Amino acid sequence: MAVTQEDMNERKAYAKKAGWRIFAIWLVLSLIGVALVLYVWGPHMPPGDMTTSAASQQFDFKVLTAMVVPVLLMVWVYGAWSLINFHATKDDRGDGIPLRGNRKVQGIWYVGSAVLVLFLAGFGTYELINGNGVGSGEGPSPIWKPTAKHMLVVQVIAQQWRFTYRWPQFGGMETTSIDLPTDTTIQFDVTSLDVIHDFWAYQLGVKADANPDVNNVAYTTTSNQQGRFTVRCDELCGIWHGAMYNYGHVVSKSAFYSWASSMETQNASVTKLLPPFATTYTPSYSGAGGGYYPSYDPNGHAVTY
After folding, report:
1. pTM
2. Which domains does the chain have, with CATH numbers?
3. What are the mean pLDDT values of the chain's consecutive 10-residue runs (305 residues total)?
4. Which residue among 20, 69, 133, 162 is least crowded, i.e. fewest CB within 10 A of its CB?
């Protein structure tokens, strides 16, 4: 049975009416979905808000998820509507409406895609600059630096298969644990003694590669929230890569300085055996050339190999 012009006009009118209904349903669901993402789920998104970089990353996730929700709902709503309404009945033996290009739909798609991509490019660049690298390693010469006058420097030294931490502001001591004070800007100097590792303090929103002979600097500022955070190696570095992790704590300033002073005193006998604080270290078994391992034992006697 041939399709008459009257049939085509009737079906086009129905399709247009259906399009507006689909749009209305999508709009209502999108507003609800975006509100749920921003105000219900958003505050609980990882990595939390223990630091400025973590809070910035959480905000980024909220924005990106809020942008995805309307797109996802459009697919679901249109698909559900099509399954329920756009099908032939038993009495409908006629041909369907011929499919042709729709310049309006194509134009909306092109413009919408371009706007989204350009917005994401600008948004990502702004967040990176405004967040002083948002917790990522910027190499030995950071482009974006915090404006804080006083920063706590923590050197992260990675090696197979553990992290140790050196504190130049506390006599150059080195510890196997890491405590950080609240409301303080932290400068992480990340390096490695052997192969490529990666320092990933998840709840702090800090992630920086640890490369041999390279100082990779990352910044963050702790909030007034105290708690434990996890440190993991996020770069395959050998057979025990999966076991290369430890835990740190964000504590009050008084608790931190009490801990740091105590550790400085306890480690004084060991600290004097370490090389002077430097941004990188070159390990050598004999200790030649300022290597990481000294050429004398803890009692001061020369060691021969």
Report:
1. 0.76
2. 7-84+108-130 (no CATH), 151-271 (2.60.40.420)
3. 60 72 90 93 88 90 91 90 75 62 79 90 88 84 87 92 92 91 94 91 92 92 92 90 91 92 89 86 56 50 47
4. 20
